[in-house]
Amino acid sequence: MYFLKNPRSILCFRGLIFLDKLSNNPYDLINNSAAVASITGTVLLESLLLGKPAIAFGNHPLKGFDNKALIDNFTDEKELMNKIKEALDINHKNIVESASEYLNNAYYKTFGEESDYCGNSKMSLDKLRVFRNNAMKGVIKKLN
Known about the structure:
By secondary structure, the chain is an alpha/beta fold. The chain is built from five helices and five strands; from the N terminus they run ββαβαββααα.
């Protein structure tokens, strides 16, 4: 039995477990991976934004992402392996563009087409709060 300080450092392939010393930067691991697998974590989106295929084993929040780089519907090992091979053939730039387009579409579906949103990092915190508050008001209004 192995006890690890960081359980994310376990890599498993065909029943063999490899222990890998990780840097403090998780993006190093993503960038040096062929693909990323997770139950539902944000690492799925992060890997797609870095041009890496993602394999989801749980009920993830990326419903509607329309690119074979996200593998979330499979029933057996053979089907999963075929989908992984297909995903690995997708150009990394295509994966990044699809993930970015998905996020842009998700934003406009949430906040509306008329928004002057320019990205969280480019907005003041006060303006961002106003956008989020207006979005919540709109959702509540539609629910009533």
